[in-house]
Amino acid sequence: MNNSINYNWYPGHMTKARRMMEENVKLVDLVIEIVDARCIQSSENPDIDKLAKNKARLLLLNKADLADPNKTNAWVAEFKKRGIEAIPLTAKNKVKKKDIDAAVECACAEIIARNKARGISGKKIRAMIAGIPNVGKSTFINSYVRRTATKTGNKPGVTKGKQWITFGDKIELLDTPGILWPRFDNQITGQHLAFIGSMNDQVINIEELAFDLIGFLMKFYPGTFEKRYEVKESYTEEELTDDYGQEIKPALAVMQAIAKKRGCMRRGGDYDYDKVSKLILEDFRSGRLGRISLEIPKAAIDRFEIEEK
Questions:
Q1: Dihedral of the CA atoms 49, 53, 55, 61 (nearest 10)?
Q2: In sequence order, which residues have a C-beta less than 8 Å from that of residue 10 and are 6 or more positions away?
Q3: Pair 94, 51 in one domain
Q4: What is the pTM of this model?
Q5: Number of helical H runs and strand E runs in the chain
Q6: Chain segment 276-302, per-residue pLDDT in tens
C-alpha cells in the first residue's frame, strides 16, 4: 500500500461554523476547549487560540479512559508549566461537576474579582464549549448538567448550530458546532485526527488509514495485535513475500493475518481489506486495542524513550 492520503478536509459548513463562533465569542467570559486525550496536540484547534484571544481558558482532555494514562499525566504537567488548567475526564461517564465548577472559577478568578470590585455579585459566568468534531462536546455538556441538553453522536457534525444551556446559578454554557481549520501544518496532524474519527471516513481511504495505524502501533505499542487478535507481528523474509515474489510490508502482513483470523475474506480467498480496515479502526477508536496515545509533549520524549517523529 502507498501512503498517499491527503488529510486536509474542510467542508463548507465549517466556514459558517467558524464565523458563528467568531461572532459569539464576544458574548462569553470563558472558552472551554475540549480535546481528545489520545492526540491532544493534533486535536487542539489553532483557530480557537486566535478566536479566544484575551478570554479566560480551560482545557478538558476528554476520552481519557481510552488514552495512555502516563502520557496523559505528562500532558497535564506540560500545560501546568504553560499556566493552563487541563483536566482529564471521560464525558460519557458522570462528570465530577464540582471539579469542573472549581476549575471554571479558577480560570475566571480575575473576572469574578473584577465583578466583585464593581459591586456585582451573583452574575453567571458565560462559557463557550469549543473543539473539533467528535471530541465529545455535547456528551460532556449532557453529563455535566445531568440531563440530555444537546444532541450527541459518534460522528462529526452532530451539533449544527449554537445552543445556550442554562442551569444552576453560576454558569451558562454555549455549545457550538465542531470546527477544523482550513489546512494542517503537517500530514501527521491530519492522520491522527483521521485515526480517532474526527474526519468523515467516507472522504478518506480507510485501507491506507488502517495500514498506517497498524504501522504506528507495531512501533510504539508492540504486542497490541498479538493480544487482541492472536496474530504474530514478526515475520521472516520468506513470509513477507507474496505469491508473485513481491515484498510486502510487515503492517500489510499483520492486516492480512487479522483478515484471516476474523473472517474478513472474499469469495475466492481474496482479502476483504475494506472490512478488516473498518474492524481495526473501530477496535482502536472504541479502546478494544487498549489505552493508546498518539502523541506526547516534546519535553517528555526522552522519558518515554521514543524518538520524535
A1: 10
A2: 180, 181, 182, 183
A3: yes
A4: 0.83
A5: 13, 6
A6: 999 999 999 999 999 999 999 986 676
287 Rama class: left (phi>0) / alpha (psi -120 to 50) / beta: left
The pLDDT assigned to 308 comes to: 40
At residue 125, φ and ψ (nearest 5 deg) are -80, 125
Give the model confidence (pLDDT) of 55-107 as tens digits. Answer: 899 999 999 999 999 999 999 999 989 888 899 999 988 788 888 888 998 88
* Angle (nearest 5°) at CA 104 between 63 and 90: 15
Residue numbers of the domain that contains 212: 205-304
pLDDT of 22 over the 90 cut: no
- Based on the domain organization, do 209 and 141 belong to the same domain? no
Q: Are 143 and 266 within one domain?
A: no
Question: Which positions ≥6 away from 244 have C-beta within 8 Å?
Answer: none
Percentage of the chain beyond pLDDT 90 is 44
Amino acid at site 274: D
Q: And the C-alpha cell for 78? A: 506540560
Q: Point out the least confidently predicted range of 34-43, 63-72, 198-207.
A: 198-207
Are residue 143 and residue 17 in the same domain, yes or no? yes
Cα(67)–Cα(287) distance, integer angstroms: 8
Q: What does pLDDT average to over the chain?
A: 84
- Please report whether residue 224 resides in a domain: yes
Alpha-carbon distance of 173 to 145, in angstroms, equals 10
129 and 270 together in one domain = no
Q: How many CB atoms lie within 10 A of CB 100?
A: 20
CATH for 93:
3.40.50.300
Please check whether residue 166 lies inside any domain of the structure. yes
Q: What is the CA 262 to chain-centroid distance, rounded?
A: 27
Last residue of a domain, one of 137, 154, 175: 175
Q: Could you list the beta-strand ranges (E) of 132-176.
A: 163-167, 171-175
State whether 23 and 113 are in the same domain: yes
Tell me the mean pLDDT in the region 138-155: 66
